[in-house]
Amino acid sequence: MTTLGTGFVYVNDKKETFSLYKEASATKHAASDDITLKAELIRALNAADNKKENQGNGVYRFRINGGKGYLVYKINLNGVPNTACVFHYHWNYTMDLPLTVD
């Protein structure tokens, strides 16, 4: 797991410091993306519930890059509070495109 640093997240209207990480396919992207990735993860963690898709077990999907991409992240890693990890993302991908076969 690669550390992205820390960020402030509002939990029940209280400002908390989260430890942020990236793992799995997210580690294969350029390290130069880490600043943007960290900013998008913090934005996702602070987003309203109706702006992210709950996939169960603390895993969420959130649109990034002006809706052109998404990231998948998990909160409370191994039961540790105030942690979050991105494990998959695409900067340019549309979740709403139907699958078509020519």
- Biggest sheet: strands side by side, in what order? 1-2-6-5-4-3
The count of β-strands is: 6
Mean pLDDT across residues: 86
Identify low-pLDDT runs. none
> Class by helix and strand content?
mainly beta
3D structure, described in words:
There is one protein chain. The chain is mainly beta and 102 residues long. It contains 1 helix and 6 strands. It has one helix spanning 34-46, and strands spanning 2-11, 14-22, 52-56, 59-64, 69-75, 83-90. The chain has a 6-stranded mixed beta sheet, with helices on one face. A hairpin with a 2-residue loop joins strand 1 (2-11) and strand 2 (14-22). The relative contact order is 0.22. The mean pLDDT is 86.
Short description:
This protein has 102 residues and is mainly β. 13% of the residues lie in helices and 44% in strands. The protein is built from 1 helix and 6 strands; from the N terminus they run ββαββββ.
